[in-house]
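Standup notes
- HV: blocked on the assembly model, inputs below
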Amino acid sequence: MTEHSYLIALLPLLSFLIVVFFLRWKEMLSAVFSIAMILVSWVISIIVLIETLARHGEPYEAYYKFIDLVGFVPEIGILIDPLAAVMLLVVTTVGASVEIYSVGYMHGDPRFSRFFAYLSLFLFSMLGLVLANNFFMIFIFWELVGLTSYLLIGFWFEKVSAADACQKAFITTRIGDLGFLVGLFLIAVYAGTFNYGGVFDSISAGAIPAGIVTLIAIFVFCGAVGKSAQFPLHVWLPDAMEGPTPVSALIHAATMVAAGVYLVARAMTVFVGSAEASLVVAVIGLITSFMAATIALVQNDIKRVLAYSTVSQLGYMMMALGLYGYDSAMGHHSPGFYAGTFHLMTHAFFKGLLFLAAGSIIHAIHTNNIQEMGGLFSKLKLTAPAFIIASLSIAGIFPLSGFWSKDEIVAAASHHPVFLVFTLLIAFMTAFYMFRLCFLTFFGEPRDKEKYEHAHESPKTMTYPLVFLAFLAIFAGWVGLPWLQSGFASFVYHGEPYHPHANWLLMIISTVMAVSGIGLAYLMYYKKSISADRVAEKFKPLYTLLYNKYYFDELYDAVLIRPVLAFGRLMWRFDGSVIDGLVNGTAWATVLWADMKQWFDKWIVDGAVNGSGWIVRQSGNIGRFLQTGRVQSYAFFALLLVVLVSLFKLEVGPQEREAGWPVLTILLAVGIIFLAILSRTIGRQPAGQETKQEEHV
Amino acid sequence: MFYYLALAAALFAIGLFGVLTRRNVIGILMSLELMFNAANINFVAFNKYIATDALVGQMFAIFIVVVAAAEAVVGLAIVLLIYRNWRGIGMDNVNVMKW
């Protein structure tokens, strides 16, 4: 089946095409078709994973040449190695759950079918990204993911905030993509190929200068910063919550933001080649993680808390990967790579579950504000336990899946004291804000009675995926138990397989951190023995700073957007005055010139034409009197001519006669005109007689 | 020979004057006959003094007499038509060729 794994990506594309072109008006059918396709993809990815396991992780690669340029051949192909196989399964699992969930969540939406088409396209892009065997192809799918996320975040584009959010997401990630593109150019120039294996080989062999490797790593990481919402490009992700909740689940759990982490994991050899770049990755990851966790502490919108939690967890993964690269470059052995990818997988499941459960809560109570919730546990018998399981998992409580992956990240940070302290602090904050959510939402007195009365459990299409994902949120981490000899770590690895060993001290410390976070949340929001308001009052400046998300949006607004707008306005003015002036001036000059030509045409050309007509007419007026109509006068003219010619012939000799013709002609003309004038005066009389005669008749 | 030619020229001039000035169509025709005859006299005179042995001049004169007779016939027919159309034979009336 591995050789047909391209089907995993192509089936959602097929579903997109079919739904868009044929099933657009049949809502249920389009949903069923999309779900069927993603389920088939899911089954194929399970088979592919099993086959990859059977091959002991031996990579499978197949490609054909896309464009055959001399010495440089971009390829289209697939690469199935353990990392890709695991990611495929994660993406299809979360994707299928989200699609099934959407049937209930999006019920009654006027663009129901389109939603499924977009979801399918989104999954196609993400699966293609995972399957790609070279940097060229991953970039294509990378941009496709960006496009589809834009479509999905802005799905309810009637809402101004959603329309703004999708643009913000698109433009912000584009900044990172620019860096990625520069990295690709560097790869193309220095490695001469885009193929992963080729690039990695030339880096390992030292064919590329160390400085360039660092540059490539940093630029590629730029792309990951944009997509995975790392500091300082994290601002788009919380705003992306304006999209429908299933979209948030998909973007945050398994696809878009995971793409950045996947890219860093994929290009790990590049990062191992440069300790500096790896350190940058680790530091950025840590800053992101810490910053997002602190912001999440004080937010009141349930989806925003989850969004910042995602940013924080992604920072975690980045940090683990960066530390791995740093340690490996320094020649140490580190669990970082395995920890990062492992956490990517477990996080996909429990974060997907969190978002879908949050969607279910919002569906039930029609508000995002946790201050208006409370006491919902009794109302949401299925959603609430699912949400709490996911919260326990993300907080890192034994033995849920989050515990194992987070523990490995802590282990990866354990050799770097600064990182270790902050990692533990973040673990504490994570537990705190997640259980702040849980306590405010499900326990205590309902703070909005009316909304509480109307709350109801969601339909089965929404709750079943929750149950399924809750199952995964508990057990998915068990594939990476430190006691397993052939667990996750010996399957997905970079370089040498890492053999984890249970570090009891770290386990206990991280559990203590998580439990104390939950305990603090319990005291503040359940028992109310510590007043949350008083704490906020006491640290007022800090609280305001966090509540406003470190003023990042305002900062970007002041530093970037306003100058750009001002510049735009300046250009507009320039356009309005100078450019338009030029254009209008040209038009004015043309009109003036045309007027001049018209005058010339009217008076000179027409004058010449009419003048010649006038001359002919006047000469005709004179000449017509020659036509008296009387034969006798004609005969008289003939006689005169004969006389003239004979006179002329008699008077001059043959020599002068030649030269005399013009004179004779002029003479004749003068004579004819004379005769005409003469006959005009003569001709009047007969005309008068004529009328008299007619009177007689 | 001068006298012959002078007579012919006088006759021709008289005929020409008649053609140009007569208002009666019959008069014009008669003046035309005068001009023919002036030409005849010239032919005969030239024949006698220049080409004595040949009879070309006389022959031509006789032809002209014949042609003049035919011409007179056509002319008189036209005169008849003019008379029918205008109820008169004054040449002043016949100005339909005017513009």
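- HV (later): unblocked. The interface with chain B takes residues 624, 627-632, 635-636, 639, 686, 689-690, 693, 697 of chain A (CB under 8 Å). The CA atoms of residues 253 and 348 of chain A lie 4 Å apart.
- Next: hand off to the docking folks.
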